[in-house]
Structures are given as C-alpha cells and as structure tokens.
UniProtKB/TrEMBL annotation:
It is a multi-pass membrane protein. One of its GO terms (cellular component) is mitochondrial inner membrane. One of its GO terms (molecular function) is NADH dehydrogenase (ubiquinone) activity. The chain crosses the membrane at residues 12-41, 62-84, 90-109, 121-139, 145-166, 196-216, 237-265, 271-293, 314-333. It is found in: Mitochondrion inner membrane. It catalyses: a ubiquinone + NADH + 5 H(+)(in) = a ubiquinol + NAD(+) + 4 H(+)(out). It comes from Lysmata amboinensis. Core subunit of the mitochondrial membrane respiratory chain NADH dehydrogenase (Complex I) which catalyzes electron transfer from NADH through the respiratory chain, using ubiquinone as an electron acceptor. Essential for the catalytic activity and assembly of complex I. Core subunit of the mitochondrial membrane respiratory chain NADH dehydrogenase (Complex I) that is believed to belong to the minimal assembly required for catalysis. Complex I functions in the transfer of electrons from NADH to the respiratory chain. The immediate electron acceptor for the enzyme is believed to be ubiquinone. GO terms for biological process: mitochondrial electron transport, NADH to ubiquinone. Pfam families: Proton_antipo_M. It is an enzyme of class 7 (translocase). This is NADH-ubiquinone oxidoreductase chain 2. Belongs to the complex I subunit 2 family. Its EC number is 7.1.1.2.
Amino acid sequence: MSLISSPSRVLFFSTTLIGVFLATSSTSWITCWMGLELNLLSFIPIMSSNQNLYKSEAALKYFLIQALGSVIILSSAPTMIVTSNNSPEITIFVAALLKLGAAPLHFWFPAIMQGLPWPQCIMLMTLQKLAPLYLISYLHSSNNLVSFIFWASALSALVGGISGINQTLMRKLLAYSSINHLGWMLASLFCSTPVMFNYFIIYSLMTISVALILNISQMFHINHVISSSFKSSPLKLYLFLSLLSLGGLPPFLGFFPKLLVISVLTTQNNILWVSILLMSALLTLFFYVRITISSVTLLTPKSKFSTKAQPLKSNLPLAFTLVNFIPISGPMLTSPPF
C-alpha cells in the first residue's frame, strides 16, 4: 500500500518528518524527546494496513519498544545536570541503541520487519533511524562512551552478517543487513557526524532501490527471487546489481561510504575495529552473491514458490535504482567524446 494513498497517511507522514526534524535540530533534551515521541505516534498509524495480517502485533511491539527507549531517555537526561560522571550518557546511548535496533538490543527489529509491507519497511529501515543516530552524536565523547560505541558497532556488524546467512525471508534478510549497516554507521559516527550523514544517505538510497523492486514484484521469499518470472531482464539485472551495491561490492555506490569509514578508522589506528567491520562486510556480501548466483544458474520454472511479476505502473522505481551505478557512469560522463 502506498504511503500517499489517503490524506490521513499524508498527514501522518508529514508529522513523522516533523518529528525527525525536531529531534535532530533540537538544542535541549526535552525538545529532542518531544520530537522522538511525535515521530513515534505518527508512525504507528502508518504501520496499520488492511493488506497486513500482522499489523496489530507489529504496531504493538514497535510502540512498546520505542516507548521503553523514550522513558529511559526522559529519566536519564535530567540526571546529567546533577551528576558529574558519564553514567547518564551511557544510559541514553543504550536507549538510542534500543530505538535503532542495534545489537545486542536488536531482537525486535527483524520480527517487526516481517510483519510490515514493503513501503513501511522502507521507512523503518531508513527514516526511523536518523533521529536516534543524531541523539548519539549529541552525547559528550568519553573513553567509556567510545568503548560502548565500539562494542555496539562490532556486535551489530557481526550479528547482522552471521544471522543473515540463515535467512530465507527477504524482509528479515534486509533487516539483518540493516543491523549490519548500523554497525558501520556507529563506526562512522565515531569518525564524525558528516561522515555518518554521508553513509546514512547512501545507505538509504541503496535500501530504497532494493525494496522498491521487491515491492513491485511482490517478493517476500528468496525462492521468489530465484524462480520468479520477471517482467523484463533489466528488472532482474537492476535487482541483483542493487543487492551487490547494498553488500558493498566495488565499483558500485555502496562501496564508497565503507571505504571512507575504513580510511578514517585506519588513520586513527583502529585496526581491530576495521577488521571486524571488513569481516562482517564479507558475510553480508556472501548471502547477496548467493542469491544472485542461484538466480542466474538455477532454473526452477515449476517451483511452488514461483510468482508472477506485477505489471509496472511507472518506470520511476526502476530509474531510482540507477543511483547504484553512479560511480560507474561518473567517469564515463566526464570522459572526452573521442
């Protein structure tokens, strides 16, 4: 179901954006909390869909988790005024990890993803992560906080890579891929806020390009991708190359933000951090390559999971996937005509 299918959804989507802007541009903890609450209360109605059998379960789980994170933030922020240690900031960091769905507090994220349609999954994987990430960037840097960021980043990267190998459902696969990218985003947040924002924008573009194709073809299982009758060969090619870009394979778009994070961490002599992130990147790239190779080499026209492709109403979603090929087309566009 489209997010702009009714005026009420347009209203709730607008207030969701307002909540994100309020949380990311606030100068006090109370206004930041208000932005998070406005974002939460606006996203709950968007999650409700008549086409979704698990809308009540997913919405209730999401509300309880996000409300718990908001309560922790609201109770921890005032204590920063009366205490001189870093314990309130650590508590706020843990609450932000809970809102993000980062490891080791990731248990709710794949389950809620599995109960949502693809448009709502796109919002959950992209827009809903921006405010908690900026919340972490507001915290004062200390040795304890850096240690917590390191362990959360390493665990998120490894959990997302290892858990995604055994998944056969595409929404859970992208959920664990998002957890893996959260590990990279936490590492980029340690580098600087502009590096994190750069990584978040490129990650959002890659995730949207993949989810749009899966939404067009109504694919929810790996066997749907492997044995599906695509409307056209370019659609299949765009999906596989977008998956490889999401996995960070050069020379696609997804490789360059990871290269930037690796270069900054290497300059700061964080070799162990870089090694863990690279290992996790190989794991995520493995299950994307596995899907691609299986789809190209296996022929199962009578599979019980086969599905017919939906007719394309617009070429805009396919045109959006071309952002993954910008690094390839860039040198070609700047080359001389002879």
